[in-house]
## 1
Amino acid sequence: MDKEALFQQFVAFTTSVHEVTFELTKDVKPEDITPLQYSILEYIAVSQPVTLSQISECKHISMPNTSRELRKLTEKQLCEKFEVPDDRRKQLIRLSESGQAMMNKAFDQIGARFFERIQDLSTEELKGIHHAITILQSKVFDENK
Amino acid sequence: MDKEALFQQFVAFTTSVHEVTFELTKDVKPEDITPLQYSILEYIAVSQPVTLSQISECKHISMPNTSRELRKLTEKQLCEKFEVPDDRRKQLIRLSESGQAMMNKAFDQIGARFFERIQDLSTEELKGIHHAITILQSKVFDENK
DNA sequence: TCTTTTGGTTATCAAATGATAAGTAATGGG
DNA sequence: CCCATTACTTATCATTTGATAACCAAAAGA
């Protein structure tokens, strides 16, 4: 097995993934939201409720900057902070109703483009894709190395 | 075949890919080079020789900004511009020797991390991965939809 | 030839992001 | 109870990036 060739293929593949996700998500970010803020909202949408520290760590943003962006997002009424009873230093973040609506709309658009992209594939092929993703996810892109 | 579930899996997968590529490439960008400049160099490295317009289009950077970043890169002696005989408006960009050396070093580091990541896998598993990437590349992440 | 288009440049400005220092309040461990 | 640590905030500054206008020269088309 030629590992070097596999690496080449891997690099080309990740490039394609970045390019395609760019295509799928472009223009879905609503007006007056910065890319960074959108990516934070995306993370909250998937993982809520989350703490500031979690956002900071997972998105690789320093705590001061995370705090700043989150203030802006709450000012825009897109998410809300809740105190957590057992540790009054922490705060749990959730999308607000309008924030949730916004992200639902965004995901709908992305989904529509995704379905368009796979529309011509047979059930067999879709199964193959599901299987391929499962393999890669578990063997190469798993978080714990 | 539940397309909705496949979409969920797809989203989680692309997130993992972004995360892993971040881990693989972090700290490989040499001092005094901005992220944007690094990504341009990466593109040149893979696709050289390229024109300014190609960089602009593929990396989604406006021509003025592409021109600016490229000027900085040539000032840093990391790439070189060549005139193209049959159309004197165009310029072909290539990595300079030191630019090539820099990118080789970066790719070596990334490769080392990649190999570490797959070191415990059997030949069978590696073949499976190769196959999985081939499937996804052709059916989902192909450029022409 | 005249005009339009293409490929690229320069200059300038605004906005987004990153980095750092300093501070508060709550928690937890001795 | 004291001290260190955690979670988060505020303020400030530098850098990076994005966006726009105005420009030049070569090429291509009528």
Note: The mean pLDDT of chain B is 93.
## 2
Amino acid sequence: MSSNEPIWYDELPSPVGILRLVADDSGLREIWFENGRHQKAPHSQWRRAAAPFVLVRRQLEEYFAGERQQFELPLHPHGTAFQLKVWWELARIPYGATISYGQLAQRIDQPLAVRAVGAANGRNPLPIVLPCHRVIGSDGSLTGFGGGLPTKRYLLALENGVAHGDLFGSALRTR
Amino acid sequence: MSSNEPIWYDELPSPVGILRLVADDSGLREIWFENGRHQKAPHSQWRRAAAPFVLVRRQLEEYFAGERQQFELPLHPHGTAFQLKVWWELARIPYGATISYGQLAQRIDQPLAVRAVGAANGRNPLPIVLPCHRVIGSDGSLTGFGGGLPTKRYLLALENGVAHGDLFGSALRTR
DNA sequence: ACCAGACTCGCCGTTTTCGGACATCAATGC
DNA sequence: GCATTGATGTCCGAAAACGGCGAGTCTGGT
């Protein structure tokens, strides 16, 4: 049956809404956006606790304050071999940069697996920390984000030092 | 990914061949027949140990010596809800008795789920202890057994006090 | 000419769906 | 006798559908 190992969760307010954090003893497993796309209820056997998330909380707060460009956290995302390959490649996109899905496909040596990369991106269990928001359409359009396009736009604006007030007024095209 | 909880295994010689025993901390999980149908190699992360199987070993030895008619062991079989229902019902078939797949289906209040019962029976992870060998065709034929029909015949003969020598000469029809 | 959209088609991993096969058995029609 | 059929849950394989794409074509408006 499923694992007996304990799973922890907690919530964290942020400029882009409440974040639900999930972790096990070996690292951070998931981050959900409140009202995000794959929103689901915490599993009944999970336990709420703040202690496992002290590091995560601090680094995310620093990130949103514009004071952190890189995360140093134990991560433990779950997925297929292909998905993990894509997700770890995300971590290598520099802060503030953007690449296209096609380029990302090339970087994992599967230049034709473009749609598959898109699908894997769409299931990134650790948004923000694994910066899937830095991947955009080859024509510069944002095309999609689990936490909603405004959030994607906000994160990119944040990383480019743009003033925060214009959550809905950015110059970045939505399409 | 999967559980971190330790899994133990060991082997036990018996009149019907070597038995592979698998257990976790909450009870016996599996018994395989050497050369049985769903024969598989022990998982690489399992650890071999004798201590968890002291009780199991003694009770099985007593059973094969004809000195035990009922097992008193912590069991922890894994399966679907339906399968567990079938398997626990097996434990209520008296020593030496036989019933048909149809009767077994009735006892779990699903008189039509006869084939499903057959399939569940075929996946009994704890043969001998959960006596699937006591389930036979409605016409008295043995019809099938994970450890081979001769073994099924042997177990039934043992439980009926028949002399052991005739492993292949029993009067019980094979079909 | 040029450009923005709308449309088509090929690409690929994952998910979903579907169809059989099973350690059955009783009823039916021939 | 004997083949057929229907009822049940699960597993397994195959097949199809489905995406946070992208390059190419076509169309219509300037």
Note: Residues 46 and 122 of chain A are 24 Å apart (CA to CA).
